[in-house]
């Protein structure tokens, strides 16, 4: 199976996206489809042995829409100048038409050549010409409406198309009667209704387009961070090229004040780089040979040369944008409500309008009244606001999360985060910075501390665990040479093994002693180190413990405040760690966590998460994304704290690129506000239709209240604007 995201043109409401989704899902070879109205794309999983991209494009065309090919990037250009001018011109034309059609009713002066009383023929031809011009302007609406009707995926365009064409044909019929000598027929023209309905639909879409662009501003900022050019070094000479010309392995140059062009590794020089757009760290980071650099970082003060490692779609920025887009292409459960409703809504509205038309004829209201009521119902019921209610709120929230350093992989997270009642934290690298230092050594061997740490540091340098960094930093700071290691082995959750000069060393926590049946005769020393808040590293040589090393971690400065706020929200907090119980309990007590589960393996963490879920708890797991991967996947919501360069490798549902625990509070808060806004949007969308359809049918005509197709189309626009304005509150809150 292969997955592709196609850019789609022509979708205007949830009935459109829902209809396209249903149509594509019916096609042989397509496994699953998710159509995104706001992002205007479709995520399709298909069997590449049966189908190719040309087949998919053809399916989209047959469904009444246009595929613009594979979705490559988010383009936020707003409304271009040509489109704005076009809209302004048609706005002026619509005002002129209304003046001509209705000016005589309030005795406004008009040109005699188009005056209904002085020159009825000129008046008729003028209205007809305006109607033709606007039907050409709204041809996309009419065409899509027809195609969707043929494919039995009727949508908003179908409603508008039927209404507009019905009004036009009836007016055309009366125009023919007028030219045949029936002067009364001139009072039965509804060409102005045709014009104004199309104009107001276009107005609504114009406003929708602007609002959709605004929802993507946070993503746009990320896209713009990466410079368009780079300076590469070829045979000792500098050359400026475009980003597209950079290849992996190229040597690039960055000078003070310039942005890093691609992700890479420094091979010469040193500088302070501002990576706050990803890491959230406001203080520029010192970088030197061997350090990684992220595209978009600002070089403050140094000259560096770096080797290109990740370019184009592989860069950290591209990965972030990709995650945001993929999240937008998933659907929150609440979004499916609108999809289901809109799927039934349009056919029901068509049925109601036809039934009303027939009843009007039976009751003797006349063909004209029956037709106008028929058209009014179709226009007033257009589900624009229903189509925007959920996806717009989701995209706004995802953009807000992205700008706050919270990358969400699935839209359902925005709906479910507010349900969380239990949060499980890993300790090292999550509640603590994972920046460890060697605090104390209990050396039982004959070798010096320096020699001991050289041996341990050499083996630890091959590990990816945060504890290993404490030892490699020690080697670096003390300029100690790394020795040759043979038969290195990593034992997940326990420790590491390596052979140096024929001597086998086992390094790890107390559980590794149990695994190798090594008797621990230094439990008293272990407790002494643990009481001081140290993580304990055992060093074993020839099945004998030769040292205990206490490694201290630094608790994140806002850990206590975040835990306190979570407790105030009645959310249970649990520390789950592979570290020893004494160390874990000391840190937990300092920051306010009351429940501690220590000395657990990665597989045991998973079982604990499962047990909590069985107790009907909605569990969020927050870890470093390495040893915690199984637990992160098992939790209802998995959150990992990652650096910008690790984003692509993550297996959690949410990534906190700023490594700030406050982001958890922000996520829960945004989730609550998003669901609140969506529910309000759905209420107003349903309330609008529940109120306006009966009025359009004519229930209030006995008390003198009725609406025309023009008023109906204007009311529909206001309904969409209400939803848009309500949704945009998310950006300010």
What does this structure look like?
The strands form 5 sheets. Strands 14-26-25-24-15-22-23 form a 7-stranded mixed β-sheet, sandwiched between helices. A 6-stranded antiparallel β-sheet has the order 6-5-7-13-8-11, with no helix packed on it. A 6-stranded antiparallel β-sheet has the order 16-21-20-19-18-17. By secondary structure, the chain is an alpha+beta fold. The mean pLDDT is 82. It contains 26 helices and 26 strands. Among the domains are: 2-70, Alpha-Beta Plaits (2-Layer Sandwich); 227-314, Calcium-transporting ATPase, cytoplasmic transduction domain A (Distorted Sandwich), CATH 2.70.150.10; 406-431 and 555-668, HAD superfamily/HAD-like (Rossmann fold, 3-Layer(aba) Sandwich); 437-552, Calcium-transporting ATPase, cytoplasmic domain N.
């Amino acid at each position: 199976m292969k997955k592709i995201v196609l850019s789609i043109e022509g979708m205007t409401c949830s009935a459109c996206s829902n209809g396209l989704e249903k149509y594509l899902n019916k096609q042989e070879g397509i496994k699953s489809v998710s159509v995104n109205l706001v992002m205007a794309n479709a995520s399709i999983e298909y069997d590449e042995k049966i189908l190719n991209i040309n087949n998919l494009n053809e399916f989209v065309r047959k469904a009444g829409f246009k595929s613009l090919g594979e979705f490559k990037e988010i383009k936020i250009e707003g409304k271009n100048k040509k489109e704005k001018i076009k809209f302004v011109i048609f706005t002026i034309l619509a005002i002129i038409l209304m003046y001509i059609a209705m000016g005589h009713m309030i005795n406004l002066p008009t040109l005699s050549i188009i005056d209904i009383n002085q020159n009825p023929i000129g008046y008729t031809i003028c209205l007809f010409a305006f109607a033709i011009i606007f039907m050409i302007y709204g041809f996309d609406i009419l065409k899509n409406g027809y195609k969707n009707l043929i494919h039995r995926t009727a949508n908003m365009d179908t409603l508008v198309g039927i209404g507009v064409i019905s009004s036009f044909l009836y007016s055309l019929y009366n125009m023919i009667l007028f030219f045949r000598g029936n002067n009364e027929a001139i009072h039965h023209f509804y060409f102005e209704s045709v014009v104004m309905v199309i104009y107001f639909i276009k107005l609504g879409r114009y406003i929708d387009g602007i609002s959709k662009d605004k929802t993507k501003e946070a993503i746009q900022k990320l896209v713009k961070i990466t410079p368009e050019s780079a300076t590469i070094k070829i045979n000792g000479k500098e050359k400026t090229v475009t980003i597209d010309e950079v290849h992996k392995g190229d040597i690039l140059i960055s000078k003070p004040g310039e942005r890093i062009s691609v992700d890479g590794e420094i091979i010469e020089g040193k500088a302070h780089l501002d990576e706050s757009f990803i890491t959230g760290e406001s203080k520029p980071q010192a970088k030197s040979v061997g350090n990684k650099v992220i595209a978009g970082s600002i070089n403050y003060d140094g000259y560096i040369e770096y080797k290109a490692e990740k370019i184009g779609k592989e860069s950290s920025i591209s990965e972030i944008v990709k995650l945001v887009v993929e999240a937008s292409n998933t659907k929150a459960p609440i979004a499916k409500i609108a999809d289901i409703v809109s799927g039934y809504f349009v056919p029901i509205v068509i049925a109601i309008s036809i039934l009303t038309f027939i009843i009007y004829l039976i009751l003797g209201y006349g063909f004209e009244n029956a037709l106008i009521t028929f058209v009014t119902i179709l226009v007033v019921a257009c589900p624009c606001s229903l189509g925007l209610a959920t996806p717009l709120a989701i995209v706004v929230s995802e953009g807000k999360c992205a700008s706050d350093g919270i990358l969400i992989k699935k839209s359902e997270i925005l709906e479910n985060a507010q349900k969380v009642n239990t949060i499980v934290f890993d300790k090292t690298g999550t509640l603590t910075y994972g920046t460890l230092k060697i605090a104390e050594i209990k050396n039982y061997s004959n070798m010096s501390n320096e020699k001991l740490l050289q041996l341990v540091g050499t083996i630890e340098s091959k590990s990816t665990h945060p504890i290993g960094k404490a030892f490699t930093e020690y080697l670096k700071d003390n300029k100690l040479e790394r020795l040759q290691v043979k038969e290195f082995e990593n034992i997940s959750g326990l420790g590491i093994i390596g052979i140096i000069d024929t001597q086998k060393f086992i390094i790890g926590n107390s559980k590794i002693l149990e695994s190798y049946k090594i008797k621990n005769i230094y439990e008293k020393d272990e407790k002494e180190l643990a009481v001081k808040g140290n993580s304990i590293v055992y060093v074993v040589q020839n099945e004998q413990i030769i040292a205990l090393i206490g490694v201290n971690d630094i608790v994140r400065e806002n850990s206590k405040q975040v835990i306190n706020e979570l407790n105030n929200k009645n959310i249970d907090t649990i520390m789950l760690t592979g570290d020893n119980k004494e160390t874990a309990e000391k840190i937990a007590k300092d920051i306010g966590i009351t429940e501690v589960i220590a000395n657990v393996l990665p597989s045991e963490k998973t079982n604990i998460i499962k047990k909590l879920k069985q107790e009907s708890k909605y569990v969020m797991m927050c870890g470093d994304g390495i040893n915690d991967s199984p637990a992160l996947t098992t939790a209802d919501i998995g959150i990992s704290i990652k650096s910008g360069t690790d984003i692509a490798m993550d297996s959690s549902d949410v990534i906190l690129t700023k490594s700030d625990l406050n982001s958890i509070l922000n996520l829960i808060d945004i989730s609550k506000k998003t669901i609140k806004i969506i529910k309000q949007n759905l209420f107003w969308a349903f309330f609008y239709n529940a109120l306006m359809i009966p009025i359009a049918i004519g229930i209030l005509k006995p008390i003198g209240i009725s609406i025309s197709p023009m008023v109906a189309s204007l009311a529909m626009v206001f309904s969409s604007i209400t939803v848009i304005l309500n949704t945009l509150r998310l950006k300010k809150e």
